[in-house]
Amino acid sequence: MGKKRKSPRMLEEEDKDKAGVAVDFPSNTVDHDPCSFGSQWSIFRVPAHIRQVDEKAYNPRVISIGPFHRNRPALIAMEAQKVRFYKRLITQMSYKDPDERIKTALTKLEARARRCYSEEFDDISAGEFVEMMVLDGCFIVELMRLHHESNQDEEGQFVEEPIFATRWMLPNITRDLLMLENQLPMFVLQEIYNLTTFDKNATPLNKLALLFLEPLRLQKGQYTDIKLNDKGEHHHLLALFHSSFIPSDYHPSRSQRGARWNRQENFPGKLWVHEAKRLWRSGIRFKYNPSNLLNIEFANRELKIPTLFIDECTGPLLRNLLAYEQCNSFAAPYFTCYAIFLSSIIETLEDIEILQDAGIIIQSVDEDEEVVDLINSLTKALVFDMHDMSDCFIAQQIEDINNFCKSWLSKCIFQFSRFDNILSSILPFK
After folding, report:
1. What is the spatial distance between Cα 280 and Cα 300, in angstroms, rounded to a whole number?
2. Tens of pLDDT along 232-257?
3. How far apart are CA 267 and CA 280, in angstroms?
4. pTM for the complete prediction?
């Protein structure tokens, strides 16, 4: 069991202010203004035309969070674990009647939380909605906190938690917490965190969440210190995870609002650029970029693309990030542009082989055909104006690639490669 968390305040002071929080975190203070950050829809049911491309990618496997998948028979088993985590959490609080304190605080957020969802849920009463927020929110906060304590234990003592000792559970729970339909508003989690944290030097909620979600990073790498110290507001865990891929020190050049591409003049391939094989034969060399996943660079005939690790979680994760951008126009379409770019350069197995040789694609799936099918299915049913340069964060890189392919040098290299291929097919090499 974890250590009992003691409040630095005297119990007499706690009794005087039942509505107060355990510790005041100025940088992450929840704004209770109903017209502020949480007044827009931010948690959506995935539209049917997107869901039908890969139904399973949007459904949680083991745990329901929020109202969309509440009471689904396949997820009921985890409800007992939520209750267990809640009881564990309140027994470590120094308040008098901690159960009432948490429920009172979240009751005040119930109306605001409901407005975050794209559906009304009139069949869920106010009391049921609050109970759902309490159990779901406390489970998430306590799970992330215990996970962090387990990893920080200097004495090497394993935190006694059955979920951590069951090989399949934690990866699946982590996956489920990044489903668009499986979210609680971040301000609900922040309120619970504030009420249950008594150490002013405790790890902030954003950092706690990012460290918990780190195993699902598409690059399988660590966050930068800038990202881990993110003190901004985010709609929910998926939005926070989405923001972690946008480099803080990377400012892609974007065209002026209203600038548009002409498909006939600007798009030589099936989408924005030629496929990898054609680009390679045109004189472009592929290299992996040891940087943020979205940091695509082109200079001196070198196209540098960060490594993408592909395993069974990659498809669902990318699809939910894309669905979030599709449903929320305030979310910059970084992953939409990324998916379109990947679909542009990957068309056949030869394209995958070129990217594999460059260290840009690393996969755990057995068949290359699966990777091609995954990449090309990501853009199905997406609504995006491909001609709007101002909405594409790699517009300059796309123009530079296409301009090079139109150059005299590139055309000479391409013609020579064709001649070389003809010779290699005629002349035997021993």
Report:
1. 13
2. 899 999 999 999 998 655 454 444 45
3. 17
4. 0.86
